[in-house]
Amino acid sequence: MTTEAAASPQRLPVQGAAAYVGISVSKMNKARMTGAGPAFYKLGCRVVYDVKDLNTWLECSRRTSTSDAGPSLN
To answer: Among the four 3, 9, 17, 19, which has the fewest Cβ within 10 Å?
Structure first.
């Protein structure tokens, strides 16, 4: 494994993913339970997030103003 790969893992546990996107672990868990959070992997009893999925989720949350509702899911 290269030093670069070790420094930026492609999959993060819940704690790491929450820190990466800047929300609490509790908020991350609730978002996962309601389906409002990023895609995740269930590996046995572990939950991990792909950094690409976290970045995609963050981009979908991007707004230009407080009145911007974001993209419609219909």
So the answer is: 3
